[in-house]
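Researcher: Structure for this, please.
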Amino acid sequence: MERVIEVLEQASGSAGRVVEGWEGRLFEDFQEGDIYYHPFGKTVTETDNQWFTLVTQNVSKTHVDANFASKTEFKRPLVNSTFTLALVTGQSTMDLSMNVFANLGWDEVRMPTPVYEGDTIYSRSKVLAVRPSSSRPQLGLVTVATEGYNQNGAIVISYRRTFMVYRQGHLPSVASFRPDEASLPPAVSA
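Model: Predicted structure, token format:
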């Protein structure tokens, strides 16, 4: 659902709408049983795998040494499993935790299928539990089960995640200054 903020009179005399972008869900938007297919996939590159492995000081040769990896049963480098966890969590933020106050934890993390450089990862989540916070009335707790899967539909990661999200009327607002819309060209009828 798009939110139309205001109708503006432009210098040309034609009306223009300011339509706000997606601002994420608040606690009241979640219902137990809801399933979200997160909209973005990501093809994992060699650079992704090498960079993430090295920047996190992971010394496993199976991620960064193709010669070593060629001697394993996998015959090629495996994508760092914590990269896969971070990627799938990131893919889910648009639908789940854009308005997060805090992540409380990841549980039951499982990786049933290896991820290789060149695989494309997609994800989905199901809302398992929703409850108001007893200690912070401006927040609620949401628990989800998330799965990441590759281009062939094979589940590559699954986990449960619990996070605290703002309730309606409690999301911090940030003032920002926008330039005047008059600098934009007028709309052209097709």
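Researcher: Any notable elements?
Model: Residues 81-92 form the longest helix (12 residues). The chain has a mean pLDDT of 90.
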